[in-house]
Amino acid sequence: MNDRIQKLQAFLKDSPDDCFLNHAMALEYIKLGDDNAAKTLFEKNMAFDANYIATYYHLAKLLERVGETDHAIKIYETGMQAAKAAGDNHSYNELQSAYEDLVY
Q: How far out from the chain centre does Cα 103 lie?
């Protein structure tokens, strides 16, 4: 296990629902090729805080990579709605671009 994961696990012991920490941990798992662990953490973030916009893009990209296209499309759509509601135009544009690349 790499040093970053160990540090993140230590922080998560004190703040298990911290979306930033869970997101960072999920990205580390992706680097290690553990898509299931990453997916679990992204889904945890979405359940805990649907307004943590970064989760949508990375979860949808993971779903694309593992062949869950229909689920990825739904995540992009939900993420675009959340980004629009939050006034986060940058994230909205990133989600929309990825969505369009997948759908069209």
A: 19
Tokens representing 56 are: 């949508």
Per-residue model confidence as pLDDT tens digits over 27-47: 999 999 999 999 999 999 999
Q: Which residues are within 8 A (CB) of 78 and not within 5 positions of it... i.e. 6 or more apart?
A: 56
State whether the Cα torsion 84-98-46-54 is positive or negative: negative
- Report the alpha-carbon distance of residue 37 to residue 23 in Å, rounded: 11
- DSSP three-state, residue 5: helix
DSSP 16: T
Domains and CATH numbers, the chain: 3-103 (1.25.40.10)
